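Escalation from tier 1.

The customer reports that the assembly of two entities below gives different C-alpha cells on two consecutive runs. Tier 1 could not reproduce it. I'm attaching the input and our single run for tier 2 to review.
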Amino acid sequence: MEIKLKVWLEQEGEVVAGDGKVRLLKLIERHGSIQKAAQENGMSYRHAWGAIRKMEMRSGLKLVETQAGGRAGGGARLTAPGRDFVACYGRFSDGLEEIIQKKFQETFREQKVTNAGKS
Amino acid sequence: MEIKLKVWLEQEGEVVAGDGKVRLLKLIERHGSIQKAAQENGMSYRHAWGAIRKMEMRSGLKLVETQAGGRAGGGARLTAPGRDFVACYGRFSDGLEEIIQKKFQETFREQKVTNAGKS
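Tier 1 run:
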C-alpha cells in the first residue's frame, strides 16, 4: 500500500487554491499570458479566468494584473502579493510529500502491512 | 487562510481507506456489530459491508470477521490484521495535522498572507 496526500487552502470554508491553481499562477508568470497558461494547464481561458477571480476574491489578494494591448499585444503577470503567494505555497509544499511518506513508512512498516496484497 | 489536508491509502491506484473507513473499522471493534457501526458512521449496512469488502480485497488483508447467530445474535469484530491496520493508521495520523499546520504557519506567516481577506 501507499499513502496519498492532498492539501489545499481555504478561507472561511471556501477553497482558495491547491496544487493545480498555484500551478496556473506559476504558468501565468512564466508565459506572461493567461491564455497560454490556461492552455498548458489543460483548461479553457474562461475557466482559468474564473479560477483566478475566485482565488482573488477568497484570499482578499490581488494576484494577477493584466495589460490590454500595447506592443506586446496585452498580457498578464503576477502582482507582488501574487508572487509572494506562490512563493509561500512553494515553501509550504517543499518536502511535504517526503514528510508524509517517512511517517507512513515508520508507522506502517512495523506491522508489515505496507506490502500486503502484493503477490 | 487555513490549510486543509486529506490523506488516504491506495493499493495499485485503488483507494483502500482514509479517515472515514478507518473510523468504520474502529466502530465495528467498539460495537461488535457492523449494523451498529454503520449506523453511527451515517451509512447503510449494505454500504458498510461493501466498503469492508473493498478494503479487504484491495489491501489483501482479512480485516473483519463475523459470527452468525449464537447467544449474542451474531456480531462482528476485527481480526488481528484488522486491529494492526487500525493501529498503524492511528500512529500515522497522530500529530499529522499538527505537522502540516506548523509547516503552514512557518511558511505563510512571513508574508502576512495567512490573515489576508479577513476584515
